[in-house]
Amino acid sequence: MSEISSNGAYGLTHDIPAAGSAYGPGAAAGAALSDERSPDGILITLLALNLILLAFFVVLNATSSFDADRVRAVAASARTSLFSDVDVREEAEAESYRSALSNFRDSIADQFAPVLFPASDSVVRADIRIGGDRVEVDVPATVFFRSDGTLYSPLPTLDGLAAVVGTPPAGYRAELAIRATAPAANQTPMVRRVATLADDLVARGIAATALSAGLLPGADIAPGAEARVPVLRFSFLLLSTDDDASHASRLAMSTPAREGAR
Asked: Which of 81, 100, 126, 244 sits CB 3.0–4.6 Å from 139 for a disulfide?
């Protein structure tokens, strides 16, 4: 009986794989290393890191609080860095003026609200507006004048107005222009009445150079409407102390001659 060769067609052979081959002893370790370096493993790692970072910010937001003072400080610092010093100064000056004009308006409103109609003790609501560099008040002339053109006395409102113009907000000065409507055919009596009112205010302490009186341009009482009550408009101007021009005088269309007036 012949010996079957290990290399024969029916021989069973058990070859030992060489070290380092795909089927050698290090195959399992190599497969594990290959899995760790796969794209799926990297994506999973990155996803886990992102979830941890998200959880951190969720906790941070839940435990944080809003500090308005710090936000304003940061905003102010940003404005300072983004805008020039000139822009910041101009913005601050504009805000300061708006605040001063608002306070000025409140002081004026206190003198006119309400104004008593001396003839009947009825209340007259003055129309008070604010805009630009002035506060304007419209009130019927009959609040201040009798039918013969003379001023009612006493008139506490005039003392209050003199105090308001004489003591404007710090850093500013005030001027006052008084103008009136009048019948187109006969404006002289109203001009005289306005001049009388202006003289009375000067006597109460308003500087003549800070006061102007005249008629409202384009606001004549048309013929046939003489029964309409003339209106007095008080225009209070709040000006910088550096501005020495007389702005009130420019508002008057016709200024009655008055001693000391400019």
From this structure: 126
